[in-house]
Amino acid sequence: MTLPAANTGSNVNRSMFYIEGGSGMNVDSKAIKSQVVLMIKSNDDIELSMDESATGPREFLLLQGKPIGEPVKQHGPFVMNTDAEIQQAFMDYQRTQFGGWPWPRDDMVFPREKGRFANLNGKETAPPDGACIAD
User: Fold this and answer.
1) CA separation for the pair 108, 105 (Å, rounded)
2) Tens-place pLDDT, residues 56-101
3) Which of 8, 104, 122, 135 has the most beta carbons within 10 angstroms of its beta carbon?
4) CB burial class (10 A; 0-12, 13-18, 19+) of residue 84?
5) Burial of 16 (0-12, 13-18, 19+ CB in 10 A)
6) pTM of the model
7) ∠ at Cα 17 (13, 18), nearest 5°?
């Protein structure tokens, strides 16, 4: 498979996370043996291939974007532009849990058979049949 170059020029950042799968994966002919984060060029095509010895699926997450030239402040899970915005995010979270968590525990785990769903304003919805390509 070929990941094409970005049409937006060389000032685009690309990160590719090799999330799942064993050895036998190659990125531009370089062997990837385990889970890793790769910083890859955005202005070149990138070849992804599997060795003949590879078995099972491989999973990647590709992130790409242009820097927007804004200041960045980060603390814990929050990323904002200023310290004041970080403090406000903490206060919002402490007050509302970002809109509330509808379940009785913070670490809820649902059975795999339940599939994908959302709970918004007390109403549970699921994607239509065939809408999920991976579970």
Assistant:
1) 6
2) 777 888 898 888 889 999 998 899 999 999 999 999 988 887 777 7
3) 8
4) exposed
5) buried
6) 0.52
7) 145
